[in-house]
Design a protein that fits this description.
single chain, alpha+beta, 6-stranded antiparallel β-sheet, two-stranded antiparallel ribbon, elongated
């Protein structure tokens, strides 16, 4: 801690991070041990966070992340979308296919930014807000591949006909962006994705990741 920082705020943020890393919640005693502070301090931190709906406690007294965190998270999407748009526009124009940025939202893949090419006669209609299971479509599969591989550069994923008949997709995961799990990809009306598209999608994913760091 430095003179310019708040110890109480730091502890409150650490509480949120600890709760975010567990599925079953933590007791006051467990939080006290992990933070290295007494139970009275933890009670006060939890009471303050509860007032803002950032933490909730169940009947057994275990603290969990509250729904207020979700409301804060929704405000992140516009910022992420704005940062990603230049790379998506370049990708869409270069490939001549609809480009998209997809983020994880629970067990689903959520398209938060979509750019369609301006010069093609036809392209796949793909809208921001579109959701699909993570295990269907190139965007979700690329994210799952990054989870399983844990590599610095997991490559790209290709699919055909999983979300829309006759459409093929290519996507590459975002790598090295703290707190964001997602992918960049394209979707096109084709039986197969041209060879150059995969590497180009990977380049776009790196551009977006750099913009978000």
């Amino acid at each position: 801690m430095t003179a310019e920082t708040s110890q109480t705020l730091d502890r409150g943020l650490r509480v949120l991070k600890l709760l975010a890393d567990t599925d079953h919640g933590l007791t006051v005693t467990e939080l006290s041990n992990k933070l290295g502070v007494n139970r009275t301090v933890v009670y006060r931190l939890l009471a303050t966070l509860e007032q803002h709906a950032l933490v909730r406690r169940d009947l057994g007294g275990r603290a969990r992340v509250g729904l207020g965190v979700l409301r804060l998270g929704r405000q992140v999407h516009p910022l992420v979308r704005e940062a990603a748009l230049p790379a998506l526009r370049s990708l869409a124009e270069d490939i001549g296919a609809t480009a998209h940025l997809t983020l994880v939202d629970g067990a689903e893949a959520l398209a938060v930014a979509v750019v369609e090419p301006t010069w093609t006669d036809y392209h796949v209609a793909y809208r921001a807000g579109f959701r699909h299971p993570l295990d269907r479509g190139a965007a979700g599969r690329a994210i799952l591949a990054a989870r399983q591989g844990g590599l610095t550069d997991p490559g790209f994923t290709l699919t055909h006909g999983e979300l829309e008949a006759g459409a093929s997709g290519a996507a590459a995961p975002l790598v090295g962006v703290t707190g964001i799990e997602g992918s960049v990809g394209v979707v096109m009306l084709a039986d197969a994705v041209p060879e150059r598209v995969g590497p180009r999608v990977m380049d776009a994913a790196r551009e977006v990741a750099d913009a978000l760091r």
